[in-house]
Amino acid sequence: MPRVSQDHLDARRRQILDGARVCFARYGYEAATVRRLEETIGLSRGAIFHHFKDKESLFLALAEDDAARMADVVAEQGLVQVMRDLLAGDSAHPPDWLGTRLEVSRRLRTDPDFRARWAERSRQLTTATRQRLLRQRQAGKLRDDIDVDVLTSFLELVLEGLVSHLAMGLPADDLGPVLDLVEETVRRRHTAA
What we know:
There is one protein chain. The chain is built from 9 helices and no strands. Helix 1 (6-31) packs across helix 2, helix 1 packs across helix 6 and helix 7 crosses helix 8. The protein is mainly α. It has helices spanning 6-31, 34-41, 45-51, 55-77, 79-88, 94-110, 112-138, 148-167, 176-186.
C-alpha cells in the first residue's frame, strides 16, 4: 500500500473540516447526518471517520479550528477586529462560521457532555484576548482603571451579542460606529494637559 504524504493528509483533513462547516451550518448538529456529511464533503464515511473518531469529534475539531483562527486574529489585531471581520464578511467562512458558533452555543446549553469537552478547548480565545489586552496595557494603550479580566469578559460579551444580532438577521450595516465605541471604551483615556 503506497504511503500518503502528510501534505495529502492535511489537505484531506482541511477538506473534511470545510465541508463539515457548511453541513453543520446548513442543517445544525442533529440534522447533519452522516449521509449529509458525505454529500457535502464529497467523501465516504470511511474517509471522513478515518480522520475523526465520530461526528461529535468532527464537530469539536471544527469548532476548535474556528476558535484557533479567531485567536490568531485576536493575538495580532484584537477581538474587535474579529467583530469587524464578521461585519465586513472578511472572515474565512462568515456565514458558515456563524452557523457553527450558534450550534456550539446551543449545545453548550443543552448537552453537559459537550459542555465538558468544549470547556477544555474554549479557553484559547479568552487567553488570546487577555494576553493581547495585557500587551496593550504594557504599551500604555489600554485603560488601567479596570481589571484586564473584566475587559476580557466585556469584549467577549460584545462578541456574543454581535453573533446573536447577526444570527437573527438584523441589519448590521450601521454597527461600525458601535465597534468604534467598544474599542474606545477599552483604550487608555488621554487627559488634556
